[in-house]
Amino acid sequence: MAVPLVVGIDGSETSLEAVDWAADEALRHDVPLHLLHAAATDHEVPDLTAVASERARKSAPDVRLSSEVVHEDAASALVGKGRNAFALVVGSRGLGDLSGLLLGSVGLAVAAHADCPVVVVRGGMEHRDSRFGSVALGVEDGEGSGTAVQFAFREAHVRRCRLVAVHAWSVPVGNPGPPGLSGYALQAHRRPPAQVLADALRDPAQRYQDVPVSSETVEGPARRALLQAASGADLLVVGARRRHGYVGLQLGLVNHAVLHHAPCPIVVVPQI
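RESULT FIELD:
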């Protein structure tokens, strides 16, 4: 039996936008869609799951749909469901979050602790509606991006769109390297940025040969490069390493920045 795509609902408009996005995503991957409402008390809106279910069926009439209400805090409920989920989907802000917040507390907690990919549905209709025909991918040096690269290729494959892979680099402060080298030449002396991308993309590109890929190496802050790539994308994919000796993921400053500011839906993929 296929594991479901799970979307958290709380009655906010952003959670209903997440339902729309998740319904389309479930159809793309041919997986069931499960609506989860975590109610702190028994006095929640009784027809919330019915409203969300109607919204999902309107967006994707053929989706296999189920719903559930549990009485626990939302972050814990979603993280628990994520142990056996294709992915978790949340809106960018919930009913209980302050209007000034860029990302709700539940979304941030789920992104930091889930065992499966977590999608935060952000951006305007043009980004949520897959009008750009592009998936953006952040690639870092090392092992933190491997699972994210596989996820991004699969997304581009099912969406029949192009993949834009971005690797941002900068020269470490206080480590000047050999005399006479600066900028790209200094970084290339260690490991060429283009090689970082080529190594990360090689195997999945062989598997998904139908996916057109463009590679971009950018000198400068990764958050700026990823936000720029996301401005013309339907989805931004980033990876996250697991914290050694602790529960959860190392989201880091870059992932925090894109989770709060990305102009399109963003998915955080745990490194396996």
